[in-house]
Hints:
The complex is a heterodimer of chains A (427) and B (306). By secondary structure, chain A is α+β, with helices and mostly antiparallel strands. Chain A contains seven helices and 24 strands. The termini of chain A are far apart. Chains A and B meet through helix 2, helix 3, strand 2, helix 4 and strand 7 of A and strand 1, helix 1, helix 2 and helix 6 of B. Strand 7 of chain A pairs antiparallel with strand 1 of chain B, so a sheet runs across the interface.
Amino acid sequence: MSTDTRDLLRFTTVGSVDDGKSTLVGRILHDTKSILVDTMAAVESVSKARGLTQADLALLTDGLRSEREQGITIDVAYRYFSTAKRSFILNDTPGHVQYTRNMVTGASNADVAVILIDARQGILEQTQRHLTILSLLGMKRILLAVNKMDLVDYSELRFLEIEKAFKDLSEALGIAEFTAIPVCALIGDNVVFESNSMAWYKGPTILDYLESVPVLTADRTEPFRFPVQYVIRPRDDKFHDYRAYAGKVAHGTVKVGDQVIVQPDGRKSTVVAIDGLSGPLEEAVTSQSVALRLSDDIDISRGALISGITNPATVSDLLIANVSILSDHALDAGDRVYFQHGTKVVLAIVESIIGKYDLNSLTPISFNEELQLNDLGVVKIRLSQELPLDRFSDLPKTGSFLLVNQFNGATIAAGMITTDIELEPSI
Amino acid sequence: MWFTYVTATSKLTQLDLLESEAVHIMRETAGTFERTVLLFSGGKDSIVMLHLAAKAFAPARIPFVALHVDTGHNFPEVLDFRDKCVEKYGIELKVALVQDYIDAGKLEERDDGTRNPLQTLPLLDAINSNKYDAVFGGGRRDEEKARAKERIFSLRNEFGQWDPKRQRPELWDLYNGRHKPGEHVRVFPLSNWTEFDIWQYIAREKIDLPSIYFAHTRSVFNRSGMWLAPGEWGGPKSSEEVKPLQVRYRTVGDMSCTGAVVSSAVTVEEIIVEILASTVTERGATRADDKLSEAAMEDRKREGYF
């Protein structure tokens, strides 16, 4: 089957309450023929039971009892569909303030973010908040869907107004580019099919955009990073001396014969074999699970980072990072937490809360204040031992971490390293 | 930045990416939990799981055991295949029997004869008595809308219950499997696979499957629009007419609630063509237990089901 060579695009949808996000998602699934008849029949029968005259496509994604009862989306829903050109994974995330943590989750693994705006409302505080989070998460590709165009008489003027306001906001947040598309998700205008009501719009539909936007892959000069997950030692006669370090390439590529450095210890070695999942390989690339064998019999265990000899990670026990608070428990200076980075978990202490972000401008506005659920802030963290660290903006997989509650195991915060050296707040 | 992003198509296909992701999840689990078990039914998803586990740890053996919660209503072909499979991969198989629980009076047969919901208690007993802290399942998010919202690492309390509001956010490649004594984590490495991906992978890897997945002639009868096979579980009723049809199964489970589909597909490639043309979901076509109510799966998960 030729479909085996399709690539994969992960995208996330972000919107405020009532922007019609679930309807848009339902519309994409429906118009790409991704909804099979039994699912559609179930949606139609529930819609009818609720006295609706047409099928409520939001029911396709609102899967949990409390969501249907409240008519809102409370958790990330993962959806899968494919077209002749590409397979898609959609992380559908809620827009309510109290569920921002789910939005962060959905966006962290996405190549593209689709932001939804109600054409009548324009840009709301929620939109600004979402854009701020996306910029912190390093989102490179943003699609602005201006929805409910039917309720503003398909006005080009209104669309351009919103596009302009969004552009100003994006530039202020340092987001380089975005694409704006006027849509009506309820009817399906410019979602999968072109609109008959907006002749003035000549650009792509949402599906055109998603099918053609290139999947971001790092080039070969990106430094190699390989967190060791597991040491494979068969301990039987046939493979008596076999020892390989299993992991998934986080960044860059590795070839047989490459010189590597094991961090944080700093010992150097050479890759003598790359065992892929279907046999030996000459080279492994980003996102590939393999096992590396090295020339020297050195002691490496889970948690080590194998890096390229040029541009290795910076080894440090102190770092500054942006954090997004994901749990009910506030984060404060002096807190002791687990720091989960790559495949390593160490104890850490929050040295100070440098500031809490103003979500509209990305500048820290308040200092020395604890950070609460859904806050975004800058913190200084001291680790109980030195670890190999990268800047998130350079290498997101080795520049990100979780803070975990020592007592109940909850994930407190997602962190993105900004620098490994001590800095004072600039304001 | 000392490097630039280029816009090139990754040389890894979506199947390569899904395979690498599943292996990464299995290695994370093996690297961070004390006692891991893989739920194995002999169905296609659990066979793919074993295949991936063998790859993840080769040339070493799979570092965990397998568990089958047997409803007593399984297709004999599938049980045969199950036993051959565990021998091939050199993994130890433990079997928990629903029948034992019914005989001991700990569980009661349901009026509809369906035993799938009865699997929860034997499963939880096996987890508790063996002190498993990680339990692999082959569940996929495309199967059902409650599953679509479950995390890859899904924390369960000491009653095995899933609490959708207590789920931990999962970011990047970082999985948080911390749990208290008595709690465990269900791990779903195939979360991001679709039924179509599974079949394409089976074709690519030339993975053997039980014969009932392929078209064969079988005596069946129709109940509520599903073709069920007669068996000791109780079907058919006197009013239900049994007739031979050429059928295959899209899922394998309890015979009382797993329906066959009329099909002539005898190879994996022919099955893939059929799925592409199918207008009904896998569970919708063949699983009566999901039709119980709009939130049937969510409710069962909250009680500790997979």
